[in-house]
Design brief:
By secondary structure, the protein is an alpha/beta fold. Helix content is about 30%, strand content about 15%. It starts with about 30 loop residues before the first helix and ends with a strand. The relative contact order is 0.20.
Length: about 210
């Protein structure tokens, strides 16, 4: 028996040959939302005024944007952080009840975002590969109980994390992959009595 939420792999390889080249049952994300199995969501693509081409960020076919160069553009960009905070205030009904995950490009970017949000009065933590498993568990516990409002993550919450109360997602880097986008979107689609819908703020440089 094989179960997957992402049958389209990021490497383009098929998984069907492991299962006699057939799918026994299929329920796509959009149908699951229509059937009210998953939470509905509202999506906003927001121009963040960052021109990656003008900033000299390299892009290579098959590899995407250069991660280090992306990190240099986003880390330390106080104007972009101010825009993120402004748009959250605009689109989120009650910041006091927010449970948000922000997807970042690097450890430095996540740590920077957490620091700036804390300075703005929004309790936040960075969860990256540099954070120990014990510390991650403590952060997730505090996130669930509301003492931490926002977690900034780097390639660590794309899958395998179950926090139904997540009500806001901040896309703070180019996703570059439909599969990864769906994985990240899925972090907020679990139904919960504490949310009516998920709010997705995608800070894109060029709409």
């Amino acid at each position: 028996l094989g179960l997957t939420a992402t049958p389209e792999r990021t490497d383009g390889q098929s998984i069907l040959h492991w299962f006699e080249n057939g799918i026994s049952a299929e329920l796509r994300l959009w149908e699951a939302i229509d059937r009210q199995i998953l939470s509905p969501f509202q999506y906003f693509g927001i121009n963040d005024n960052v021109d990656l081409e003008a900033a000299g960020v390299s892009w290579r076919r098959g590899f995407g944007y250069d991660t280090a160069e992306l990190s240099n553009v986003y880390t330390g960009n106080d104007a972009r952080v101010a825009l993120v905070l402004e748009q959250m205030d605009h689109y989120v009904d009650d910041l006091g009840k927010i449970k948000a995950i922000g997807f970042c490009v690097s450890i430095e970017h996540a740590q920077y975002m957490a620091r700036k949000f804390n300075e703005a009065g929004i309790p936040s933590k960075a969860v990256t590969s540099s954070v120990s498993s014990d510390d991650r568990r403590v952060i997730l516990t505090n996130f669930r109980n509301g003492s931490v409002k926002v977690i900034f993550a780097v390639d660590i919450f794309n899958e395998g994390v179950d926090i139904p109360d997540v009500n806001t997602l901040l896309m703070l880097r180019p996703t570059e992959s439909a599969t990864i986008f769906i994985q990240q979107l899925g972090r907020g689609l679990r139904k919960s009595d504490n949310k009516n819908c998920l709010t997705v703020l995608d800070f894109v440089g060029n709409q």
